[in-house]
Design a protein that fits this description.
This protein is an alpha+beta fold. The protein has three domains: 5-76; 100-175, Signal transduction histidine kinase, dimerisation/phosphotransfer (DHp) domain (Helix Hairpins, Orthogonal Bundle); 184-328, Heat Shock Protein 90 (2-Layer Sandwich). The chain has eight helices and seven strands. A hairpin with a 5-residue loop joins strand 6 and strand 7 (321-328). The longest helix is centred in the middle third of the chain and has 56 residues, at 84-139. It is elongated and about 125 Å long. The two termini are 64 Å apart. The relative contact order is 0.07.
């Protein structure tokens, strides 16, 4: 305690005041001098005991802070007592727990980032290998028809790679909080038609029957461009599941609580254990008929949830999969 400058100054002042009061007491009379000395001594002893106890508490808090700085798992929590030091220690304990939670979250994010980078590398490596193989075949292929077929296949691979990179960039922008959604009235009929427009020709080529029941006049709040992309990704997934000569049914309903959009395909549906993982990045269902990347549904969920909506998937009672999007009022 004597290392504390303030404590030394107080001790010197106390001794001076005690000495002066004791001397003045003896000058008045012996009993007054004895009373002054005893009072000063009692006060000094009490002050010493109280200050030592505070120093011990401060030392325990300092030890706890030191353990936190050195990433020790041990966390000291003393008995609950009233007082400023108790309040301080309680706040330090909260801060410690919060720091550990943040450290754990950062560690998990780093692990997820490492896994994502590995998945991205794997997803890009496969089409790149195919492109290199096609280039080697083109060098030794004399037939013009076969060369055109190889070039078409290579073009399809490059389009898929472009879509993957673009989707990953969009996901990274959403994760970083760079994207600012515009909250404006969006007509559901126009939104569904915007999402469907690029897919009408592929649906026709695969003989997929489309049935849409979207009444005019139903509106939600959101960013129409991003929402159209989210719905388009769901429609692409349903096209892959439905396959040739399949069916897709789109229904929009409105009630006082929410606006609901359901997309039902005539495919094989999902296994029950897959439903919890459908919207995870790079997850591909076991029954997937297309060489997808597992990005579309993850992007869809991010877009919709960031705008206050929800999206779920389940198996339809009549067979096939059904995606349910809800926008609360």
């Amino acid at each position: 305690m004597l290392r504390n400058k303030e404590y030394r100054q107080f001790a010197v002042c106390f001794l001076v005041i005690g000495g002066v009061s004791g001397t003045a007491g003896f000058l008045i009379g012996r009993p007054a001098g004895v009373l002054a000395v005893l009072s000063a001594s009692a006060f000094g002893i009490l002050f010493y005991v109280f200050t030592r106890a505070r120093y011990q508490s401060i030392a325990e808090i300092s030890e706890q802070i030191d353990m936190v700085l050195h990433n020790t798992d041990y966390l000291f929590i003393s008995e609950s007592k009233e007082g400023e030091l108790s309040i301080l220690q309680s706040e330090i304990t909260k801060m410690t727990l919060r720091i550990r939670e943040q450290n754990a979250a950062l560690k998990k994010e780093k692990e997820n980032l490492a896994d994502s980078l590995a998945d991205i590398a794997h997803q890009l490596r496969t089409p790149l290998t195919s492109v290199n193989l096609i280039l080697s075949l083109l060098e030794n292929e004399p037939e013009e028809a076969d060369r055109r077929e190889l070039l078409q296949e290579m073009e399809e691979l490059l389009v898929r790679m472009d879509w993957l990179i673009t989707s990953l960039l969009k996901l990274s922008r959403l994760d970083a909080g760079i994207v600012v959604f515009r909250s404006r009235p969006v007509d559901m009929w126009e939104l569904v038609n915007t999402a469907l427009r690029p897919l009408l020709i592929p649906m026709e080529l695969h003989n997929i029957a489309l049935q849409a029941e979207v009444p005019e006049g139903i509106q939600i709040q959101g960013d129409s461009d991003w929402l159209a992309e989210a719905i388009q990704n769901i429609l692409k997934n349903c096209m892959e599941n439905a396959g040739d000569h399949g069916q897709i049914e789109i229904v929009c309903e409105d009630n006082p609580l929410y606006t609901e959009l359901t997309v039902h395909d005539s495919g094989t549906g999902f296994e029950e254990k897959e439903l919890a993982s459908l919207f995870e990045r790079f997850y591909r269902g076991k029954n997937s008929r297309a060489a997808g990347y597992g990005i579309g549904l993850a992007l869809c969920r991010t877009i919709i949830t960031r705008q206050g909506g929800t999206v779920t998937a389940e198996n339809h009672p009549r067979g096939g999969a059904v995606f349910i999007i809800r926008f609360p009022k």
